[in-house]
Design brief:
SH3 type barrels; alpha+beta; six-stranded antiparallel β-sheet
């Protein structure tokens, strides 16, 4: 793909997926937690909870209203994440 300046777009950036993009019952592997700033305490907290590269993650369900919060499982542990938090965890 090319943008209006005719330079090549980063296809990897276009194909990035996050926990917030997953469907109920879908499993994926975490590739990274993407901080939104240099001092992102939420990204640091997610990493401390076990959202690290190579871990399997499964989307169990969404909250009763919309898609917030998301219930995800890593190993035998389940976490409720806000959609804004889930959109920081990149998966493949």
């Amino acid at each position: 793909m090319y943008n209006e300046n005719h330079s090549h777009l980063d296809l990897d950036a276009m194909n990035k997926r996050y926990i917030s993009d997953m469907k109920i019952g879908e499993q994926a592997i975490i590739t990274s937690v993407v901080p939104i700033s240099a001092n992102d305490s939420i990204a640091r907290r997610l990493i401390n909870l076990g959202f690290v590269e190579g871990e399997d993650v499964k989307l169990i369900t969404f909250g009763p209203i919309g898609q917030d919060p998301l219930l995800v499982q890593i190993g035998f542990t389940r976490f409720a994440l806000r959609a804004s938090e889930a959109s920081r965890v990149e998966v493949r």
